[in-house]
Design brief:
The complex is a heterodimer of chains A (300) and B (532). Chain A has 11 helices and 13 strands. Chain A is α/β, with parallel strands linked by helices and 300 residues long. In chain A, the strands form 3 sheets. In chain A, strands 5-6-7-3-8-9 form a 6-stranded mixed beta sheet, sandwiched between helices. In chain A, strands 11-12-10-13 form a 4-stranded antiparallel beta sheet, with helices on one face. A 3-stranded antiparallel beta sheet of chain A has the order 2-1-4, with helices on one face. Chain A is elongated, with a radius of gyration of 23 Å. The chains are: A alpha/beta (300), B mainly alpha (532).
Chain lengths: 300, 532
Amino acid sequence: MNVIETSKLTKNYGKHAALQGVDLIVKQGEVYGFIGPNGSGKTTTIRILLGVLRKNGGEVKLLGGDPWQDAVALHKRLIYVPGDVTLWPNLTGGEVIDFLGGLQGKINPSRRRELLDRFQLDPKKKCRSYSKGNRQKVALVSAFASDAELLILDEPTSGLDPLMEQIFQECIFEIKKQGKTVFLSSHILAEVEALCDRVGIIRQGRIVESGTLEELRHLTRTTLTVELANPINLNQLHGVHDVLQKEEKWRFSVDANAMETVMGALAPMGIKSLMAEPPTLEELFIRHYGDKIEERIELI
Amino acid sequence: MKENHFVGTGKLLKLYLRRDRIILPIWILLALTVIYGQVSFVKAMPDWQMFITEMSASPLTSSLLGPVVPLSIEGAILWRGILQASITVMIGAAITVIRHTRTEESTGRNELIFGRPVGRYANLSAALILSCGGSLIAGLLTAVFLMGNGFAGSGSLLAGLTLAASGCIFAGIGGLCAQIFAHSGNARGAVFGAYGLTMVTMVLNNMGGGSTGWAWLAPEAWFRITVPFGQNHAWPLLVFIVLSAIPMMLSYMLLVRRDMGAGLIPQKEGSATTSPRFNSPIALAWRQQKGRILIWAIGMVWLGGTMGMGTPNISEAISSTFAHMNTSWASAIVELGNQEGFIAILIYILGLMGGLSVFAITMVQSLRQEEKEHYAEIVLSRPVSRIKWMGSYLVIAFAGSALILCVLGLASGLGWSIAAGEYSHFLRVLVMSLSKIPSVWTIIGIAALLYGWLPRIASVLNWLILGVFIFIEMLWEVGIVGWSAMQWTPFAYAHYSIPIHELPIMPLVVLLSISAALTWLGIIGFRRRSIG
């Protein structure tokens, strides 16, 4: 079953088209990574999914319902953590957690205690004195303390320290074990790589790539480092990019579909050592976002 | 090496001018506009001489607004003109200072600036210069305008400078409040509180004949000390400057003695859990608004109580020509008598026109605030319907305004009764106050409608509409428009000029249904639009 399904979703702010046809499918039980540069439409998409923004066109289905029409019924089943958590300055963190939990129903006190402990959050402080990271912890504790079947997280860890990031990841794994679905918009690619089953890349209001990390990697280049006994002119080979040479060592990247020919050409040259690195998500990201970077590389 | 704490003041001033390029002209020009209004009123009057003689002689208007000094056309203009213009200048100046100091600090934007080579005093200095400069411009424009109308140059200039001085001291008070309170909302509240105090001293001064020592404590009555177009005292201006410097100096002293972001009142630890009943939007709305409601209630008890106690001092003698004036306003007062007239006007101003309508609008606008701060989004992403969220805040606004009106009626009624030793007044005053409920609720309805459909400009439209209502009231008072125009405002249906035992019930019922309908329409609009 698909938990989130959008097709040709559009949203305009005046003349500015924030979403120009977003197609998304998030399946039940998966952790879906939603990545994209600033201003690409991640938060707009999420706000439509929450029924806070009205869409201008296209279809959107959330947990089988319409996020705008059935907002209240759907919100019983999902939890949202905003990226920039702002909290009522005059309430304490504990009060906010209890209040938000109370809106949803009951909150499990032992689970609450455990999470406060794990995230090392002091619930007695007023929200106005919390740092950004601590405000995020309030929202995360509140989210993980609930029983919702879907978590929608909008850059939830941008203010957390690496230790807390680790705890966040543990919590997501636990949630996943329980068969719940997570929609994670993030900038921290290492986090997406560690957590997500599938990834969608949004750019200028369109999904430009989606699939499992394996599938995405297949579309891009692998970086090879080889030591050759004989000289070779790699630049003549089709599908080879970014060539660097240091004495006998070569470092370059190869298109996935050119791998066979490149390996064929290298084999007779006396390979002393060979190392292949799969593309990192960073490279995928840059490939999709950074037109300029890519053009520059091509020129070289 | 000696540090220059003022480094960067000029640059910040430029930034503030840029940020205030709309708000600053608004409060400056508003002051000019009310002076313009008074000039046109007085000039349009067929017999201004009789008008001011009467106004001056009436114990009622003297108690509220003081005698007309000097007894001339200029005096008649300044009599209410300075009072109204000083409100806009005083509040405008104080709010401007808070806007650039405490608000910047509590939102953290200040840190962006103080990370640069900017002195400790730069931000407060630039804000004070901006506000005092704005007040001075308002004063000079007023002076030029008065001269342009053919009034004496010295008097015009003195009137303008007196007006400017009232802005300067409130710029200082704004700066002081910004140091004391960690929250810009509280600081603004304190400014309004300070203004309320000056109103009391102003009325005390007027009750005492218009030239008592109380006047020094009421910047809106400072023109009674300088007496432009009369004795033309210029020396008090120097005293005003010294008086204005006091809160400014205090602000600087406090500024260096506290941490950035902190107020003078230390932050307490709160509770780690809440009661299980704190689990609904209405509980949240109450939690957020109860402080404001309490402060308003206390203010009303104080203002209503003290003025009620002062009521028996007002002479009941109605001067003979006053009875023959043919404005409906005058005949209403003749019918009511001076003391009941005073209380009726007091309840009308505090409970509706000047007080509770402001409360109503700010309460509904707190919805917009919650939305802008993204608090609304957090709540609405939980299983909370939009009706419930918006409805909760409105219920608190409705109930809170009714509560405050009740308290106002009790306090002023008791004050008058105790001071007069005559308890028959009590119930009448209470009912007077409660009769304002439908009108106040109508204003809440209008605000809800605007918030639901036009959230971005709702605030401006709200104040504009209230301004138009008040303007109509003023036109009616001097007899330029008739009662039929007043009936376009919700004020007319619980107006002070209608004796309370004669007040028709039906229109109030109609107002209640109009209020309900507007609120309902507002909620429909809110359900249909995007948040944020």
